[in-house]
Each structure stands twice: as C-alpha cells, then as structure tokens.
C-alpha cells in the first residue's frame, strides 16, 4: 500500500504548536489502512466497518515472525508477536478468554495512574540523554507495571524449554514461574513450569555478585546464599523468587548466555495463562540492556493492527533510523525505566488542534506497550475530543453510550463503510505519527482519555502504536507506519 506524506503547509500549521521548531520540509506519514482505504486530501479516510472490529476467531497470519526487509540489516533476532487473548497467541497461553473491554479499561486505568505517579515531579527534569540517575523510590520493594497485552515465545535453558511471556517496555526484570511450585503459590499455566534442575546451564546468582547488587529496589536479600528478587506491579500483582542465570534462545541461531532472570516461586495477580514476563525497560537487568553487546542496544517492534494478526519484536535492527520519523529520547530522573518523548501537538483532519498551550505537554510522554489507550493532558484531550466530534458530525453517525473512560463513542452497526478524520500526533523535532484507523477508534470509541492533569506525563498507548514500527536506540525513538 502507498504511503501518504503531509503537505508542507499542513505540517507547518501543526508545528506552530511545537516547542521544537523544525525545517519546513520535515517528513510525516499519513495512514495506510486495511480494507481498501480511501484518503481525501489528507483530511479523511474511509474504511470498511469490519476493519475496525478488534476480535475474531481465526489467525490471519499463523506463520513465523517476518519483519519487513528494510528492517533487517546486520545481526538481528526476530520474534513473532501476538495479542495475548487473540487467536494468533500460542494455544498454550490461551487458558481463558479475553476479559470484557470495560474490564480491560479499568485495569488500564490502574496502569496509567501508576505510570503517572512514577513520573510525577519530573516536570523540568526531562533530559536528552540515554543515561539516567538512580530512581528515587522506596527501597523496601520493587515496583513495576501490570496489565499487559502482547506475548512472544522464547526458549529458556539447555535443553531449551518454550516459554510464552508478555512483552513490557515499562519493566526491567524478566521472570518465569519455576518448579517446584504448587498452587496457590504459582498460578495455572498450560506449559510445564520451568525446571532449573533440568537445565545444564542454569545457576542461581550468588548474593555477592554484581548482578544481585544491581537489582537495587527489586532485590529481596538472600536465602541459602542465593540472590532473591521481588517485583510488585501497579495492578497489585507480584512475583518473587530466586534470581538466576541461564541460556535464552530468542529465535533459531540467536541465543543470549548468560541471561539473568527471575525464577518465580510465588506469584499473585493477573498473570494466569502466561509463563512469565520479558522486560524491555532501560535499566541494566532488562533484556534490551543484557542483549546490547550482541545487538547494539537497538530494538524495534510492530504491534499487530488487530487481535487476529501478528507483529514482531526485533533486537538489533534496524541499525539505521532511515525511513523513521524520529524524535529525541528523554529520561525522567525519577522513573528512568520509561522511554519518554515530548508530544508537542495534535492534528485532526490535517489541521492543528487549537487552544492547547505547549505547557500542558511539559511532563513528557511515555511510550508504553502495556497501556491500551493514549492518555493526554486534560486540556489537550478536551480540544481533541471537541475537534473530532465536530468533524464526525457531518456524517451523522449515531452516538453510542460511553465505555468506561472512553466518552466519545459511535454506533456503526448499520454501515458498511466508515469515514473518519485523520488524526496525527506531533513530537519534538517535528516527528509526525499519523494514526491508522484502528489507532483512532477502539470498540467504536475515540481511543484517547485524559490523564491526571495538565503538565503531567502523557502516555502513548498500544492502540495508537498498532501496525507502526517503533524503533528505540540510546538517543531517539522512531515511528514507521504500516510496518505489520
């Protein structure tokens, strides 16, 4: 499908809201859509109503992970990425059906509130650097984020044992449930528990090892000279056990050894159906950091556009940001795990949304795979909602009741095709991300919600990231629409 480029005049109007002025020729992307989309003058897009449906029972692409050719250069490992509750997820992870969307939104709100609490107070403390100061948080227990959505399958140990784990850019400690562990200490999963005694390459991390000391807030002392870890998540879930080392096989021919991870012997919360978690945060214990020597510290992912399709996670490629709209990577000193950027403006129908002072974006924006819908400062959200509703009014679509935190909903049940105004997000330096149609609406509702206050951290959720290749390196974040 063809890419659409924002015209210089449209881009200039959008960038008037930006803190970071850029040259008039800056590049942006307009949507590429499934189901024969039609774009009129970069302002509206028409898609089939069926293409906006999130659910299905058949996987559209059940094969191995395949990233676009332009994303593969040099040494890389590509993993197949699927929605946790969709038909493309490995059958062993599908212990239970996905929760109702209203329940997803309630859990999503807990996650968003937790992120905002962590980043609060960071205004004025964002910096353009890949390094970060230690997090200033209570040292009694490690905290991270719960309520995730996407899974990959890796292999752990020698011989390798398949493990289906959730992907999280907001966490650093990776872990799986380990044998021996009986309910209720360990929750039910279809895969056998990982057995460290059955792996010839497993070893527990000694208490005096540097790796144990680097756990910092995620450390829980020692037991029988073995380092222990603990992670408690924002939704109330937690995991604790022994911090260990073993061989991690990412894809055929791509192994990481030693790989440090938590061998969980006591878990509670919302993990049922998965084998553990793969942390891709920015701290030393994350997969991204542990794999930096082999893959250069660069990784990218493409979240599938719907639950019936697959995306990919790629470590080590693309090594170049060519083809991506890039913006500077920022760090909140008190939440260094998070990948942060600066949102500077929003456009609807190719026109900048007015009435939004740039100061409302001062808290930065967390790019997060686990938050579902994007959170905006209240002033920015109100302006987006008003502009979007006005643009939709000309088509006369009947309104529908709100769903949880989503208050701008439509009933498309009588329509074969739906016309939407385009929506684009503008980041520092002029990087423009034009959203796919499924990134504008979710379950018939505008997929945005307000955060806690103007100037507090915004969150770029996974709905808006779907079908977009998102690339991270030590200094920038890049976006390439239509990549999966």
Q: Could you explain how this protein is built, in words?
A:
The structure is a single chain. This protein has one domain: Acid Proteases (Cathepsin D, subunit A, domain 1), CATH 2.40.70. Strand 25 (399-400) and strand 26 form a beta hairpin. The termini are close together. The strands form eight sheets. Strands 7-8-15-9-14-13 form a six-stranded mixed β-barrel. Strands 1-29-28-21-22 form a five-stranded mixed beta sheet, with helices on both faces. The chain is an alpha+beta fold and 484 residues long.
CATH topology: Cathepsin D, subunit A, domain 1
Task: Tell me the total number of β-strands.
Answer: 35
Structural class by helix and strand composition: alpha+beta
* Sheet with the most strands, sense and barrel status: 6 strands, mixed, barrel
Estimate percent helicity: 10-25%
Q: What is the level 1 CATH name?
A: Mainly Beta
Helix segment count?
A: 8
Pfam family, one: TAXi_N
GO molecular function, one term: aspartic-type endopeptidase activity
Domain Peptidase A1: 150-483
Protein name: Peptidase A1 domain-containing protein
